[in-house]
Sequence to fold (389 residues):
Amino acid sequence: MNELTEAGTLHCANCGTPLGGEFCHHCGQSVHSVLKPVHHMLEDGMDMFLHVDGRIFHTLPPLLSKPGFLTLEYFSGRRQRYVAPFRLMFVLCLLAFFAFHLAVDVVMNKRVAESGRTGSGQNTFAEARTAQEVQARLAKSQGELEATRKTMPTVALPGIDAAENQLREQANKRLAELGKAPARASSAAARDAGGLDRPVHLTSKMDHQIVHVAWLPQFMNERLDLYVHRMLTNIKEAFGDENPEARQLARERLITGVFAVLPQAMVVMIPIFALLLKLFYVFKRRLYMEHLIVALHSHAFLFLALLLVAVLGMLSTWLRPHAAWTGYVFGYLQGAVFLWMPTYLLLMQKRIYRQGWAMTVIKYWFIGWCYFWLLSSVLGLAVVLGAGH
Fold:
C-alpha cells in the first residue's frame, strides 16, 4: 500500500518518493495495488498473452481505413493510445494464418463431404457384391494404412487408427447387408491388443540415402536425409494413389506443416521489406528504424485484410446453403478488400515519404516487384519446410 503523510501527500510504497501521478517517477512502481479482484487478474493475463488491451479499438479502425495514419502518429510521438507496431503485427499475423488454416479445413471438409469421403473408387464397399470382394478391398486399404503408419510420428497414429476403424465399420456394414460375418481386426490392431509397441518415429535408416553432403558431419547428413524422406513421403501420400482416408490424412498433415512455418517466414520478410524501403528512399535520410515501423504497419494491415478475407470466406461457406444470395455479397466484399490492399499501400507510401505521384508510383512498382519475388522465394521455402513436417 502507498503511504499517505499528514499533509495529504501520497508517497510511493517502494521508495517513499512523493507521487505526482499513477507511477513513481523515481522507481517506476505503479500507484495501484496488486491485490485486485479475480476479473482484473484475468484481464491482465489476457493482456500479457495477446499483448493488446483496450487500445486495440483505437488501433484497428485507422489501421484498416487510414493509410499511413498510425505510422505518422508514431513518428509524432503520439503512441500511448495505440498498440505497439510489432505487437500489432505479430498478433494479426497469428490470427490471420489461424483463420486461413480454419478456412482451408472448412473447404477441404466440404469437398470431402460433397464427393463422399469413402463413397467412390477403391474405398466404396457399397459396390462390392460378395463378401470376398469386401474383404479384399478392406485388406488393401488396411495395408496402405499400415504402410503409412510406419512413416508417421506418434502424435499422428490416433488419426490413422480412426481412419482404419471407420473403414472396418463401413466394411462390416456392407457385410451385414450381404448377410455375412463381420471382418476381423487388422494385424496392426491385433499387435496393439497384444501389447506390442509401434515405431515411435521415423528414423533416417531408410532403404537408400537421398542426401549426402561430403563436408557435413554424419549426424547432419542423417538429419537432412530424414527430412527429405519425410517430405517425399508426405507428398507421395497426399497426391498419390493411396486410399482416400490416407490421402486426406496426408494432405491435412502437409497443410498443418506449411501453416506452422508461415508466421516465421513472414517475420523474416519484414526487415527485408524495411531494407528495400531504405534503399529506395536513401536520400530521404530516414533511419532504418523508421522504415521498419513502416514495414510493421504495412504488414499489420495486410494481415488484418487477409483475416477479413478468411472470415468472409468462412461466413460465405456456412451461409450459402441457407441463403444463396449471401455468397454474392461476401464475394463482392472479398473483392473490395483485395482491391483496397494495393491501393492502401500506395496511399500509405505517398503520405509517409511525401514525394510526387510520379516518383511514388515508380518506386511503388519497383519495390512491389522486388518484394514479390522475395516473398515468393520465402513462401516457397516455407512450403518445402512444411512438407517435411
